[in-house]
Each structure stands twice: as C-alpha cells, then as structure tokens.
Backbone:
C-alpha cells in the first residue's frame, strides 16, 4: 500500500463499490488513508506461503477456528 | 434509598423472601427513568406497559412459589441493536426508524424466559460504531457521574442506565470494546464473554468474527448471574460454541488466594500511557490482589498497536459487508461519523484483510503461550476518566490503540470493573482477562477485588435530575 492515494485511484475504488459520494465526502475520506495504510503495514509482515489465516473452520462443527 | 439502587443479587434475595415486589421495584426504576432520562438519554424506547406486565407476571409467580430463577422480576434493558418482537429496534439510526422486528433475538428470549422485566431499549452508537454523534434522530447517552461527560460506546445507554438505577442490569455488545468501554467510564462491571459463549442470533452485526454479547451491571456477581442465563449453544448462530455452561457463581466464594495474575504493564504504561488516576487504580488493585493471596507476574505481548491494527482492519472490512445495500442506496441516512468509518473500508484490499487474519492467528498463539501459566491478566480498560462529550475527536480511535481490542481479536473473555475514582470524581477502571471459557475464574477474581474495596458502595449523586418534560423544553 502506497503512502498516498490519488483522486483518480480513489475514484476507481468508489465506483467499484457502487457508491456515490459528494466532493466533500471524498476529501474527508481521502484524508484518512494514512491511518489505514499504517495498520495494513503493521499486519503485512514476511510470512511463508504456508501461513494460515484465522478464518478456518472444522467441517461439521460450524465453529470458527 | 430506592431499591432500584440495589444489586441484582440483593434484589433477587429481597424478591425471594417477598420483602419487595417486582411491581414495586419496576415502578422505582420507571421513576428513575422519568426523573433522569431527559438528561442522560439512556433510552431510545421505554417499554412501560411491557415492564408492568412483566412485573405483575413475576409477582404472581413469586407469590405462587413458582419463580423462574434468581432473575425473576429483575428490571433490565437491552441495547437497541438487539431485536425485540413487536418493539421498535432502531440501532440508533435513521436507517431503521420505524423498524419493528417480528422475532426476538436469542439473548432477549433467554432473559425473558428467566423472568426479567424489560424496561426498554437502550441507546447505542449508530449500529454500534462511531459515536458520539449529534446528527442522529436520538441524542447520545450521557454519563450519570457528570452528564457533560462521555459514556464511551457503543453500549452507551446500558452504561448510563445501570449506575443511575434505571435498570439493575442490561445487555451490551462488544466488537472492539463496546461493553468494557462504557462499563469503565460509567463505573460499573461489564463482561465480554468468550467468542461463541453467547448467541449473536437476532443482534445486528457489527463485525461478524469480533462480535460478542454480554451483560453489564453494578457488580461482577450480577454479571455472573446474567451470564448464567445467556450462555449456551444456539444453532441459529453459526459461531456459537458447543461448550458446557458451568455455574458462574460457584467460584465466587473462593477469593483470589492462589490465583496467578499476569500484568501487561507495557500496554498501559508505554504503548498507550494512561492517566494518573487510572494508573493508580491498577497499581492499587495489584497490591490488593497480592494482599488477597494472588501471585503477581509480568506478562509481555506484542505492542498494543499490533493488536489494534489487526482488529481494526478486520473490523473495518467486515462492518460495511453487513450494510452494503444501505451504503449503496441510502448512504446519507447514516450519521457522519459512522458513514466516514464505513467508507474507510474502500482502502482495504482482499489481501490486506487476509494478512490481518494471518496476524490474528499469530497474536492468538502468542496470547495462549503467555497465559499458559497464569489464570488472569490485568491491564487498563480505558486510558483515562470520561472526557467531555463535546471533545471527542472523530478519529480518536485511530490515533491511539484501545486496550480492549486484543481480546476481541483473541476471543478471550475480558471484563472491566471499577478500580476507584479519579479526576473530578469520575470512575476509573481496570480490565481483567481469562482463558477461553474460563469466565468463572474471571468472576472469582473480580468479585474478590470488589469485596476487598469500597468502590461498589459509591453511587453517582445524580443531582442534575430534572423531569423529562422539563429537559425536552
């Protein structure tokens, strides 16, 4: 995830989500990008391809592992 | 003093020996609501007619020696994201004005079957996220210790209603701290049980794999009594656990002697340094536990910021997934704060989300290892006493990591209890954590602490009281 986001990149994300935002709303949300980028960076550390996500289930149990 | 200021345990004993009637108790709670809720805004809907009918039915059972159990005749409230058949359920949002469910949530059914008296539906942050908001159809709840101050959220109405004697106990929900935050700032006890311990069926989702339902009351013993009724398998909730429910009050008399307690000093002393009052409350509590015969150790985990990043990315991704249609077709019906939080999900990719769940597995493994040789963990529940309600920055939750999210990420049971009074006489709190499904141990430790200290003898003065009609003007 890059440090910043362009208006064009953000517009693509808005359209992909099927949303209609006002210019003011777009500016407000674009200003929060750095918060999300910092959290994503904390989670994304080097892992082997065998690393497992937490969202696994046991067949027949229906309980999140 | 009104019996609406008794604990559930005390009221239950009085009801059992017919020293007080459920109707009398309910009328006293209704009187508190009428006197105070014009200021505190704890309720979205007061169900006076239902409450009186419930109370009369409880009274008839008790007089016929057919009480349904220790909660029969106890006045309670439900956070307004919990479905109630035939009763307005709004999630505190313009999106659901006029929404009347045709079925009860499982937790509402369980409390009704235990004989509780439903006083009404309680304020929340909109869809349990993003407050305090002043642009919603109903105002935010205010703190009974000082109504100029915040309750925290999102179970804000429950946090306000319990200490002010409007209800004796209530339900909250907790996705990142929404039970423990209001419990802390409002000076009561609140437990987020183990993930899967209490059915989520019929409760509006926030983030599916972080959502928990739990009780809030004046004492940990009261929470234990409520959890006894709420816990258990429910096939209507795919995450509900098939784990036997123990007697949650059985361990209360054992005290803290012999408990092994780990303190996560770095969470509240370095990662997010707490106020002087909060730190003193925790330090004094550690000394109290030691004096009671507990063994104290230091525990080190990954920084609080890691837990917050993991939980927040999962939460921010899952929350909008539940409200996609509302976002597409009526986005502007959300209040500004929730709308903005939902829109932040646009920045999160599928890979980002999976990376967060991989991190979750790592953090859960780390916590399990750290707790291998301890029964209880202690850290803060909130960074400081309740701030002014008008001074809450919109993005405060992203500026500093909260103390509660680690135990939504891990699913471990965690509880906030009052640990004293700090600046301005406002409550301070600490958080206790136990191993999965070890809620009984959590109640044991919390109860021992509450009995060894005087904090449960202090109620808010409520000297701001004014009638609802006067407040409305």
Residues:
């Amino acid at each position: 995830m890059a440090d910043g986001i362009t208006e064009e990149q953000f517009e693509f994300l808005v359209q992909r989500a099927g949303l209609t935002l006002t210019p003011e709303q777009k500016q407000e949300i674009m200003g929060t990008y750095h918060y999300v980028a910092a959290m994503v960076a904390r989670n994304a550390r080097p892992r082997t391809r065998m690393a497992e996500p937490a969202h696994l289930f046991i067949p027949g149990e229906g309980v999140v592992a | 003093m009104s019996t609406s200021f008794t604990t559930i345990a005390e009221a239950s004993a009085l009801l059992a020996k017919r020293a007080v009637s459920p109707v009398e108790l309910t009328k006293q709670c209704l009187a508190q609501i009428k006197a105070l809720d014009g200021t505190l805004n704890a309720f979205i809907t007061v169900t006076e007619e239902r409450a009186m009918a419930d109370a009369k039915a409880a009274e008839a059972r008790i007089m016929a020696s057919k009480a349904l159990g220790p909660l029969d005749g106890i006045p309670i409230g439900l956070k307004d994201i919990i479905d109630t058949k035939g009763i307005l359920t709004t999630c505190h949002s313009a999106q659901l004005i006029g929404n009347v469910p045709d079925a009860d949530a499982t937790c509402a059914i369980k409390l009704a079957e235990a004989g509780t008296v439903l006083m009404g539906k309680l304020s929340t942050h909109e869809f349990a996220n993003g407050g305090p908001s002043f642009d919603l159809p109903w105002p935010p709840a205010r703190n009974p210790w000082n109504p100029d101050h915040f309750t925290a959220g999102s179970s804000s109405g429950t946090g306000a209603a319990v200490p002010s004697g409007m209800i004796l106990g209530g339900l909250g929900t907790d996705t990142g701290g929404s039970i423990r935050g209001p419990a802390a700032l409002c000076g009561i006890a609140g437990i987020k049980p183990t993930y899967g311990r209490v059915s989520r069926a019929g409760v509006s989702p926030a983030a599916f794999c972080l959502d928990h339902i739990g009780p809030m009351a004046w004492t940990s013993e009261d929470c234990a009594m409520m959890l006894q009724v709420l816990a258990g398998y429910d096939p209507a909730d795919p995450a509900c656990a098939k784990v036997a429910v123990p007697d949650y009050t059985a361990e209360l008399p054992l005290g803290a002697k012999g408990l092994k307690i780990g303190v996560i000093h770095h969470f509240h002393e370095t990662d997010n340094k707490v106020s002087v009052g909060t730190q003193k409350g925790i330090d004094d509590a550690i000394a109290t536990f030691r004096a009671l015969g507990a063994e104290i150790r230091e525990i080190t985990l990954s920084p609080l910021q890691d837990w917050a990043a993991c939980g927040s990315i999962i939460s921010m991704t899952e929350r909008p997934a539940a409200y996609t249609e509302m976002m597409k077709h009526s986005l502007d019906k959300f209040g500004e704060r929730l709308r903005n939080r939902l829109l932040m999900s646009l920045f999160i990719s599928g890979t980002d989300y999976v990376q967060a769940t991989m991190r979750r597995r790592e953090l859960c493994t780390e916590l399990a290892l750290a707790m291998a040789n301890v029964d209880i963990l202690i850290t803060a529940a909130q960074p400081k006493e309740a701030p002014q309600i008008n001074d809450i920055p919109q993005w405060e939750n992203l500026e500093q990591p909260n103390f509660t999210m680690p135990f939504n990420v891990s699913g471990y049971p965690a509880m906030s209890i009052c640990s004293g009074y700090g600046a301005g006489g406002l409550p301070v709190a600490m958080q206790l954590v136990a191993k999965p499904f070890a809620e009984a141990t959590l109640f044991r430790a919390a109860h021992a602490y509450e009995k060894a200290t005087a904090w449960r003898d202090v109620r808010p003065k409520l000297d701001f009281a004014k009638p609802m009609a006067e407040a409305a003007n």
The interface with chain B takes residues 1, 5, 10, 13-14, 17-21, 25, 28-29, 32-33, 35-40, 42-45, 47, 51-55, 61-64 of chain A (CB under 8 Å).
